[in-house]
Protein backbone atom coordinates (compact mmCIF):
# COMPACT_ATOMS: atom_id res chain seq x y z
CA UNK A 1 0.00 0.00 0.00
CA UNK A 2 1.12 3.54 -0.81
CA UNK A 3 0.18 6.89 0.72
CA UNK A 4 0.15 10.01 -1.43
CA UNK A 5 1.53 12.45 1.14
CA UNK A 6 0.61 15.60 -0.79
CA UNK A 7 -2.31 16.14 -3.17
CA UNK A 8 -4.75 18.95 -3.86
CA UNK A 9 -7.99 16.99 -3.94
CA UNK A 10 -10.17 20.12 -3.80
CA UNK A 11 -8.68 21.34 -7.08
CA UNK A 12 -11.18 21.78 -9.87
CA UNK A 13 -9.27 19.27 -12.02
CA UNK A 14 -9.79 16.49 -9.43
CA UNK A 15 -12.73 17.32 -7.18
CA UNK A 16 -15.64 16.98 -9.67
CA UNK A 17 -14.54 13.40 -10.35
CA UNK A 18 -13.16 12.62 -6.90
CA UNK A 19 -14.76 9.21 -6.31
CA UNK A 20 -13.38 7.93 -9.64
CA UNK A 21 -9.97 9.46 -8.88
CA UNK A 22 -9.91 7.62 -5.53
CA UNK A 23 -11.08 4.40 -7.17
CA UNK A 24 -8.26 4.54 -9.73
CA UNK A 25 -5.83 5.21 -6.89
CA UNK A 26 -7.06 2.13 -4.97
CA UNK A 27 -6.59 0.00 -8.09
CA UNK A 28 -2.96 1.15 -8.12
CA UNK A 29 -2.43 0.31 -4.42
CA UNK A 30 -2.64 3.94 -3.34
CA UNK A 31 -4.95 3.90 -0.35
CA UNK A 32 -4.07 6.88 1.83
CA UNK A 33 -4.03 10.57 0.97
CA UNK A 34 -2.95 13.80 2.62
CA UNK A 35 -5.18 16.50 1.13
CA UNK A 36 -3.48 19.89 1.20
CA UNK A 37 -5.12 23.28 1.49
CA UNK A 38 -2.90 26.01 0.09
CA UNK A 39 -5.19 29.01 0.68
CA UNK A 40 -7.26 30.04 3.68
CA UNK A 41 -10.45 29.88 1.63
CA UNK A 42 -9.78 26.19 0.82
CA UNK A 43 -9.65 25.10 4.48
CA UNK A 44 -13.35 24.22 4.80
CA UNK A 45 -13.48 22.33 1.49
CA UNK A 46 -10.42 20.23 2.34
CA UNK A 47 -11.77 19.45 5.83
CA UNK A 48 -15.05 18.30 4.26
CA UNK A 49 -13.22 15.95 1.90
CA UNK A 50 -11.27 14.45 4.81
CA UNK A 51 -14.42 14.09 6.96
CA UNK A 52 -16.11 12.08 4.23
CA UNK A 53 -13.29 9.55 3.72
CA UNK A 54 -11.61 7.50 6.38
CA UNK A 55 -8.31 7.29 4.47
CA UNK A 56 -7.99 11.01 3.65
CA UNK A 57 -6.40 13.38 6.13
CA UNK A 58 -6.00 17.15 5.85
CA UNK A 59 -3.10 19.57 6.13
CA UNK A 60 -4.03 23.24 6.13
CA UNK A 61 -1.77 26.10 5.17
CA UNK A 62 -1.08 29.03 2.91
CA UNK A 63 1.29 28.74 -0.01
CA UNK A 64 4.00 31.43 -0.26
CA UNK A 65 2.64 32.48 -3.67
CA UNK A 66 -0.46 33.65 -1.75
CA UNK A 67 1.54 35.98 0.49
CA UNK A 68 0.80 38.94 -1.74
CA UNK A 69 -2.95 38.35 -1.25
CA UNK A 70 -3.35 37.20 2.34
CA UNK A 71 -1.29 36.94 5.50
CA UNK A 72 -3.73 35.73 8.17
CA UNK A 73 -2.45 35.67 11.74
CA UNK A 74 -1.90 32.77 14.13
CA UNK A 75 -5.16 33.67 15.90
CA UNK A 76 -7.10 33.65 12.62
CA UNK A 77 -6.03 30.05 11.96
CA UNK A 78 -5.36 28.16 15.19
CA UNK A 79 -8.92 26.87 15.76
CA UNK A 80 -8.88 24.89 12.48
CA UNK A 81 -6.20 22.58 13.85
CA UNK A 82 -8.47 21.23 16.58
CA UNK A 83 -10.38 19.24 13.97
CA UNK A 84 -9.52 15.51 14.27
CA UNK A 85 -9.03 15.12 10.48
CA UNK A 86 -6.38 17.84 10.41
CA UNK A 87 -2.99 16.26 10.98
CA UNK A 88 -0.60 18.81 9.47
CA UNK A 89 0.18 22.50 8.99
CA UNK A 90 0.99 23.87 5.52
CA UNK A 91 1.93 23.87 2.82
CA UNK A 92 3.81 26.99 3.71
CA UNK A 93 7.31 28.23 3.04
CA UNK A 94 9.33 30.34 0.66
CA UNK A 95 9.13 30.57 -3.12
CA UNK A 96 11.39 32.97 -4.97
CA UNK A 97 11.24 31.23 -8.33
CA UNK A 98 9.36 34.07 -9.97
CA UNK A 99 10.98 37.49 -9.75
CA UNK A 100 7.77 39.17 -8.60
CA UNK A 101 7.64 36.87 -5.57
CA UNK A 102 11.05 38.10 -4.39
CA UNK A 103 9.45 41.46 -3.65
CA UNK A 104 7.18 39.72 -1.16
CA UNK A 105 10.03 38.49 1.02
CA UNK A 106 8.76 40.02 4.24
CA UNK A 107 5.17 38.96 3.66
CA UNK A 108 6.33 35.44 2.82
CA UNK A 109 8.45 35.37 5.97
CA UNK A 110 5.54 36.49 8.16
CA UNK A 111 3.29 33.83 6.68
CA UNK A 112 5.95 31.10 6.96
CA UNK A 113 6.62 32.10 10.58
CA UNK A 114 2.93 31.97 11.43
CA UNK A 115 2.79 28.41 10.12
CA UNK A 116 5.95 27.42 12.01
CA UNK A 117 4.33 28.79 15.18
CA UNK A 118 1.19 26.75 14.45
CA UNK A 119 3.33 23.60 14.10
CA UNK A 120 5.15 24.40 17.34
CA UNK A 121 1.90 25.06 19.20
CA UNK A 122 -0.14 22.11 17.88
CA UNK A 123 2.65 19.51 17.59
CA UNK A 124 1.45 18.77 14.04
CA UNK A 125 4.17 18.51 11.39
CA UNK A 126 4.72 21.40 8.98
CA UNK A 127 4.59 20.69 5.23
CA UNK A 128 7.26 22.97 3.77
CA UNK A 129 7.31 24.31 0.23
CA UNK A 130 10.74 25.72 -0.67
CA UNK A 131 11.82 26.83 -4.11
CA UNK A 132 14.86 28.97 -4.97
CA UNK A 133 15.08 29.82 -1.27
CA UNK A 134 17.51 27.40 0.33
CA UNK A 135 19.42 29.81 2.54
CA UNK A 136 16.29 31.65 3.68
CA UNK A 137 14.55 28.35 4.47
CA UNK A 138 17.50 26.91 6.39
CA UNK A 139 18.00 30.14 8.37
CA UNK A 140 14.38 30.35 9.50
CA UNK A 141 13.99 26.65 10.32
CA UNK A 142 17.23 26.58 12.30
CA UNK A 143 16.48 29.70 14.33
CA UNK A 144 12.88 28.64 15.09
CA UNK A 145 14.00 25.11 16.03
CA UNK A 146 16.05 26.73 18.80
CA UNK A 147 12.93 28.39 20.23
CA UNK A 148 10.80 25.25 20.20
CA UNK A 149 11.36 22.10 18.23
CA UNK A 150 8.79 20.95 15.67
CA UNK A 151 8.65 18.32 12.98
CA UNK A 152 8.42 19.02 9.29
CA UNK A 153 8.71 17.66 5.80
CA UNK A 154 10.35 19.18 2.74
CA UNK A 155 7.59 18.47 0.24
CA UNK A 156 8.21 17.94 -3.49
CA UNK A 157 11.90 18.26 -2.80
CA UNK A 158 13.98 19.53 -5.73
CA UNK A 159 16.83 21.20 -3.82
CA UNK A 160 20.44 20.41 -3.03
CA UNK A 161 21.92 17.66 -0.88
CA UNK A 162 23.35 20.36 1.40
CA UNK A 163 19.92 21.68 2.40
CA UNK A 164 18.46 18.17 2.64
CA UNK A 165 21.32 17.09 4.90
CA UNK A 166 20.98 20.16 7.14
CA UNK A 167 17.25 19.53 7.53
CA UNK A 168 17.63 15.75 8.00
CA UNK A 169 20.06 16.52 10.83
CA UNK A 170 17.24 18.50 12.50
CA UNK A 171 14.91 15.49 12.23
CA UNK A 172 12.95 16.55 9.14
CA UNK A 173 11.60 14.25 6.41
CA UNK A 174 12.03 14.63 2.63
CA UNK A 175 9.34 13.85 0.06
CA UNK A 176 9.87 12.72 -3.53
CA UNK A 177 7.43 13.82 -6.23
CA UNK A 178 7.13 12.95 -9.93
CA UNK A 179 10.08 15.25 -10.61
CA UNK A 180 12.44 12.36 -9.73
CA UNK A 181 11.19 10.51 -12.83
CA UNK A 182 12.03 13.35 -15.24
CA UNK A 183 14.84 12.62 -17.69
CA UNK A 184 16.87 15.67 -16.72
CA UNK A 185 16.60 15.08 -12.97
CA UNK A 186 19.70 12.95 -12.43
CA UNK A 187 21.17 15.39 -9.88
CA UNK A 188 17.95 15.14 -7.87
CA UNK A 189 18.00 11.32 -8.06
CA UNK A 190 21.54 11.51 -6.66
CA UNK A 191 20.19 13.56 -3.73
CA UNK A 192 17.47 10.98 -3.02
CA UNK A 193 20.05 8.18 -3.20
CA UNK A 194 21.53 9.70 -0.03
CA UNK A 195 18.35 10.32 1.97
CA UNK A 196 17.97 7.65 4.69
CA UNK A 197 15.13 5.22 3.98
CA UNK A 198 13.38 6.01 7.24
CA UNK A 199 13.00 9.72 6.33
CA UNK A 200 11.47 9.35 2.88
CA UNK A 201 7.93 10.06 1.78
CA UNK A 202 6.30 9.97 -1.66
CA UNK A 203 3.72 12.32 -3.12
CA UNK A 204 2.16 13.50 -6.35
CA UNK A 205 1.37 17.19 -5.69
CA UNK A 206 -1.62 16.34 -7.91
CA UNK A 207 -2.99 17.86 -10.10
CA UNK A 208 0.53 19.17 -10.81
CA UNK A 209 3.74 17.41 -11.83
CA UNK A 210 2.61 14.10 -13.32
CA UNK A 211 5.55 11.67 -13.39
CA UNK A 212 6.90 10.02 -16.53
CA UNK A 213 5.30 8.54 -18.63
CA UNK A 214 2.29 10.77 -17.85
CA UNK A 215 4.20 14.05 -17.90
CA UNK A 216 2.05 16.93 -19.14
CA UNK A 217 -1.22 15.19 -18.24
CA UNK A 218 -3.35 15.96 -15.18
CA UNK A 219 -1.63 14.26 -12.27
CA UNK A 220 -3.74 12.05 -9.99
CA UNK A 221 -2.85 10.29 -6.74
CA UNK A 222 -2.62 6.94 -8.60
CA UNK A 223 0.52 8.29 -10.29
CA UNK A 224 2.42 8.18 -7.01
CA UNK A 225 3.07 4.53 -7.88
CA UNK A 226 5.40 5.65 -10.72
CA UNK A 227 7.34 7.86 -8.34
CA UNK A 228 7.60 5.05 -5.80
CA UNK A 229 8.79 2.65 -8.51
CA UNK A 230 11.55 5.07 -9.51
CA UNK A 231 12.48 5.73 -5.89
CA UNK A 232 12.80 1.98 -5.28
CA UNK A 233 15.26 1.80 -8.20
CA UNK A 234 17.25 4.73 -6.82
CA UNK A 235 17.44 3.08 -3.39
CA UNK A 236 18.14 -0.38 -4.84
CA UNK A 237 15.21 -1.99 -3.02
CA UNK A 238 11.92 -3.55 -4.10
CA UNK A 239 8.73 -1.64 -4.84
CA UNK A 240 7.03 -3.47 -1.96
CA UNK A 241 9.74 -2.34 0.43
CA UNK A 242 9.59 1.31 -0.63
CA UNK A 243 5.79 1.19 -0.35
CA UNK A 244 5.78 -0.22 3.15
CA UNK A 245 8.69 1.94 4.32
CA UNK A 246 7.22 5.24 3.08
CA UNK A 247 3.81 4.31 4.49
CA UNK A 248 5.37 3.57 7.86
CA UNK A 249 7.31 6.84 7.72
CA UNK A 250 4.11 8.77 7.02
CA UNK A 251 2.37 7.15 9.99
CA UNK A 252 5.33 7.82 12.26
CA UNK A 253 5.68 11.45 11.21
CA UNK A 254 1.96 12.20 11.57
CA UNK A 255 1.52 10.04 14.70
CA UNK A 256 -1.11 7.79 13.11
CA UNK A 257 0.03 4.54 14.72
ZN1 LIG B 1 1.18 21.41 -3.17
What can be said about this structure in brief?
With 257 residues, the chain is α/β, with parallel strands linked by helices. 41% of the residues lie in helices and 18% in strands. The protein has helices at 18-27, 43-52, 74-77, 99-102, 105-122, 134-147, 161-169, 186-194, 224-235, 239-253, and strands at 2-7, 30-37, 56-60, 86-95, 126-131, 152-154, 173-176, 200-202.
Can you walk me through this structure?
With 257 residues, the protein is of the alpha/beta class. It has a single domain (2-253), classed as TIM Barrel, CATH 3.20.20.140. The protein is built from ten helices and eight strands. The chain has an eight-stranded parallel sheet. The longest helix is centred in the middle third of the chain and has 18 residues, at 105-122. It is globular, with a radius of gyration of 17 Å. Residues 6, 8, 36, 38, 91, 205 line the site of zinc ion (ZN). Zinc ion is lined by residues 6, 8, 36, 38, 91, 205.
Any key phrases for this structure?
single chain; 257 residues; TIM Barrel; eight-stranded parallel beta sheet; 10 helices; globular; binds zinc ion
Q: How many separate domains?
A: 1
List the uncertain runs. none
Number of helices: 10
Strand order of the largest sheet: 1-2-3-4-5-6-7-8
Beta-strand percent range: 15-25%
> What is the structural class?
alpha/beta
CATH classification, class level: Alpha Beta
Supply Rg. 17 Å
Fourth CATH level, the homologous superfamily: Metal-dependent hydrolases
What's the β-strand tally?
A: 8
Oligomer: single chain
End-to-end separation: 15 Å
Can you tell me the CATH architecture? Alpha-Beta Barrel
**Could you say which small molecules are bound to this protein?**
zinc ion
Q: What's the CATH topology name?
A: TIM Barrel
